[in-house]
Amino acid sequence: MPHLLPLRHRPGMSGPPEKLFGLVHEDDELLVVNKPADLVCHPTKGDEYSSLISRVRLHLGQADVHMVNRLDRETTGIVLLAKRDEAARELRKLWESGAVQKSYDAIVHGHVGPESGLIDEPLGPDEVSPVAIKDRVRTDGREAKTAFTVASRFSRAEGNFSLLRVQPQSGRKHQIRIHLAHLGHPIVGDKLYGHDEDCYLALVERRLTDEQCRRLILPCHALHAGGLTFNWRGRDWQFNADPEKWFSGFVAQ
């Protein structure tokens, strides 16, 4: 198993990273990157390396760049950026229309029974949770659908796991994480929708214990945005990105 830094000493917390991000594609109008784990997309009060958009500005040497899609801090994978205003407007409309196909890899707890399935459960705020950003499945929520197929089932010393290929058919906040947890197979390392949401609060409050780290198994949740397909300006575009070594190493071991 690859070496993993403890959660309290995550990469990127201070000093320049080994690399800004993985470069998937670049031309005069588009920049497609493979976002690393534990990196927010939006600017923060940190240094110039503390967000993806600030790293992109360093790479391009320009401030005027538009992020078309976003990923959660711990989610790795493809983020599309537009270098020009017109391209950004067109691509955002494409996203809003639901014409973009997105594919994710997720490592979840347990051996998922069916080879494939569709989770069709509406989502809305979790008003009971002390975590303000947390959502849940609720009958009066907004429609949300997530399709999945089982790529592999495997076992390790820590337990049984499944690698899933996931295709969200809507774009709700935390959709994949909530739906898979609702299925009874939360994503490995998920501090908010895993077995104990106090792990999330502990992380925010800087009181995460060694025992909580052990139960989480991985320092970041194992969700990777690996594929993006859409038609734009009369051309079919497809981008793919491999997960980080800690992700693929967990499956391989």
Task: Tell me what you see in this structure.
This protein folds into 2 domains: 11-97, 2-Layer Sandwich (Pseudouridine synthase); 101-221, Pseudouridine synthase (2-Layer Sandwich). 20% of the residues lie in helices and 31% in strands. It has 6 helices and 12 strands. It is globular. The protein starts with 21 loop residues before the first strand and ends with a helix. Residues 1-13 have low confidence and may be disordered.
Q: Give the N-to-C terminal Cα separation.
A: 6 Å
The share of residues in extended strands comes to 25-35%
CATH superfamily of the largest domain: Pseudouridine synthase
Which whole number gives the mean pLDDT?
92
Compute the CA-based radius of gyration. Answer: 18 Å
The CATH topology of the largest domain, please?
A: Pseudouridine synthase
Q: What are its keywords?
A:
single chain; 253 residues; alpha+beta; Pseudouridine synthase; 2 domains; ten-stranded mixed β-sheet; two-stranded antiparallel sheet; 12 strands; 20% helix
List the helices and strands and how they pair.
Layout: E1 22-26, E2 30-35, H1 52-60, E3 66-67, E4 76-82, H2 85-96, E5 101-109, E6 116-120, E7 123-125, E8 135-137, E9 145-156, E10 159-168, H3 175-182, H4 198-204, H5 210-216, E11 223-232, E12 235-240, H6 245-252
Parallel strand pairs: 4-11
Antiparallel strand pairs: 1-2, 2-4, 3-4, 5-10, 5-11, 6-9, 7-8, 9-10, 11-12
Short description:
The chain has six helices and twelve strands. By secondary structure, it is an alpha+beta fold.
